[in-house]
Amino acid sequence: MSTFAAASHADEIIVAWETQDIAEAGELPARHDGSGLNIVRATADQRTLYSFTYREQESGVTDHGFKALAPQ
Fold first, then answer.
1. Fewer CB in a 10 Å sphere around the end CB: N or C, the chain?
2. DSSP string, 14-36
């Protein structure tokens, strides 16, 4: 991640993703059970990963037929 900041001439970059979304999209195992928000803050010299797990509550169905979930 620090390479991205250096390559783009940025002082720092921040990247955020939802654990289960990335695991499913990349066909990879999730880092932990359940949902979680992950945030990386990277500079040319340092990288910090923050992980915030949370529970979801099913709140119905979307217009496209997917389960609608809300953080609990």
1. C
2. EEEEEHHHHHHHTT---SSSSEE
